[in-house]
Every structure is written in C-alpha cells, then in structure tokens.
Design brief:
The chain has 11 helices and no strands. The chain is an all-alpha fold.
C-alpha cells in the first residue's frame, strides 16, 4: 500500500497556489476600483457562483451529488451541518485579500497567511476533520511551522518604520490563513461523501456569498458607500477572482484527501510564494517596496515548507515499513 503523494496532486496544488496570487491581485484592484473590500468580495463570489451554476447545470453527476447525495449523507449523519461551513473560511480569505492587498502588497499578504495556514494545518491534520487519515504532529513539522511564523516577523520588519503596515490588516491576514487550513478539510469531506468536487464547491460558494452579503448589508446600514466597478469587457482582470476561486475550491476538495491538509497547504504556499514575489517585483502596487527583509522572509518560509513537506512524506512512508 503506497502512501506517497501522487504527482498530479502535488502539481495541481502548486498551480492553484499560483492562481491564488492572481486572485489576490485581482480582488485587491477590484476593491480599489469600487472603494470597498467587502463589496469587492461579494462581486468576486457572485462571479464565481454564476460560473459554478453553468458548470453544475451542464454536469448531471454534479446535480445528482448536490440534490440527492448531499441530503442523503446529512440524514445518515455521515456529514454534519458544520461540514458545510467551509465557505466561511473562503469569505474571510477573499475579504482579507480585498482589504489588505491594497495596504500591504501581495507578497506581505501571502507570507502572513503562510503562518496562519501552516500552524493551523498541524492541528487539522491531527484530527479527523479532513477526509484523509489522521497524520501525526512530528517535531520537525512543529519546528517548520514555528520557522514559518518567525519568517513573517522578518518579512514585515522593514515596514514598521515606514508606517505603511496596518496591524489590523496583519491580524486579518493571519486569521485568513488559519481559515484556509480548515476550509479544504471541510470541503474535502463534502466532496468525498458526495463523490463530486463541484457539489462541495457549490456549498462553499453558497455559504460564503451569504456571509459576505450579510456583511455588506451591515456596512450599508452603517452608511458605507461604494461605486460600481467597470464592466468585465472593459477591465477583465478585475473579474478573475471568482473564476479562480472556483478552480481553487474544486481542486482543493479533490487533492486534500491524497495529500492531507498540511502537505496540500505547504505545496500551495510554495506556489503562492514563488508567484507573489514575482508579482510584487514585476507588477508592483503603488507604494509597495520589495526590501531585503521581505525576500529573506519569503526564502525562510519556503525553507520551512520544504522541511515540513519532506518530513510529512517521510513519516507517512515510515508507517508502511
């Protein structure tokens, strides 16, 4: 019985990480265009939901999984109501993208979410929250998670003196990273039980969009104003966040079982790190500077990812011997 992670799952997790950086930049620019992060998040989720409706309408297996399989699993208590809440993590992540990327840049946002994701993944993998077998918390995994967290301090250290790093944005990004660790575990359970990743994606987008609409309603009641965005054919890049979100959730729901939450998160993070640094160098947002602290922080985080990933695969192989 092999416990090695399949190559297709590793490649897919890495590619999705690259796509997340595109989503971060897209949602960040959309937030600037409309003048509000929550409204930008609603637009991003709504765009993804429309695309998802088209996909599900054209796939009979997805409709069966959603309309018959999901209620059956809930009635049999093989799925619980809280398994359906993965979309709350997605809503928090997309909202934090839209709010913090214009303030901090994509690379800082990515490095901070790394710490939240890696630390939380250790606990999630230890439990039966995800669809795969529980994976032990080893010393090297803990050291790697602590190393990744320490790298955040190094990465952001160059920003404190310039005054352009907002502490609340930093904390929000960290919380979003933690939510990203829990989200694929819950969605993975739904995908595994219903037999279709798009059923899990529909549940995720439905819950997430509902939460964001509630937040937008509260904002409106408090007197917040926003402007309408340009049409998709006028500024297509601003509308990429939703489609990328669909690809992310469907892929994550598929690969989290063979990889486990931690290894999926680590490979996904590696894709994000490589793409985010390139993004901030080649397409910098106004006021975004890439200093040595950020580069060193990203490098240290990547080293932490390699340390934990190699150990996670080795430890799983050792169970076979």
């Amino acid at each position: 019985m092999h416990h090695h992670a399949p190559v297709w799952a590793l490649v897919l997790a890495f590619v999705v990480g690259v796509l997340v950086v595109i989503q971060s930049r897209s949602n960040g620019e959309l937030a600037v265009a409309v003048g509000d992060g929550v409204f930008a998040s609603v637009l991003s989720f709504a765009t993804g939901a429309i695309l998802l409706a088209v996909i599900v309408a054209s796939r009979p297996v997805s409709r069966r999984a959603l309309l018959a399989g999901l209620p059956r699993e809930l009635r049999a208590h093989r799925l619980h109501w809280w398994h359906l809440l993965g979309g709350l993590g997605g809503a928090l992540f997309v909202a934090s993208q839209s709010i913090t990327v214009p303030l901090m840049g994509v690379a800082i946002f990515t490095v901070v979410t790394v710490a939240g994701t890696t630390g939380t993944s250790l606990g999630v993998d230890r439990t039966r929250l995800g669809p795969g077998v529980p994976r032990p918390v080893t010393t090297r995994r803990v050291v790697a998670a602590m190393c990744a967290t320490a790298s955040v301090g190094l990465a952001v250290s160059g920003r404190f003196t310039s005054g352009d790093l907002v502490m609340s944005a930093l904390l929000l990004s960290f919380a979003a990273g933690a939510a990203v660790a829990i989200q694929p575990a819950l969605n993975g359970q739904v995908a595994a039980r219903t037999g279709d990743p798009f059923a899990a994606t529909v549940v995720n987008f439905g819950v997430g969009l509902s939460a964001l609409l509630l937040a937008l309603g509260i904002e409106h009641a408090l007197g917040h104003a926003w402007t309408l965005p340009p049409a998709p054919w006028e500024a297509p890049f601003l509308w990429l966040g939703g489609p990328v979100g669909v690809a992310f959730i469907a892929s994550a729901s598929t690969v989290v079982k063979p990889l486990g939450v931690l290894l999926f998160g680590l490979v996904n993070i590696a894709g994000q790190l490589c793409a985010s640094l390139v993004s901030d160098i080649v397409f910098p947002t106004p006021g975004t500077a890439v200093g040595w602290q950020l580069v060193a922080g990203v490098a240290l985080t990547l080293a932490s990812v390699i340390l934990a990933a190699s150990r996670s695969r080795a430890s799983r192989s050792s169970h076979v011997r």
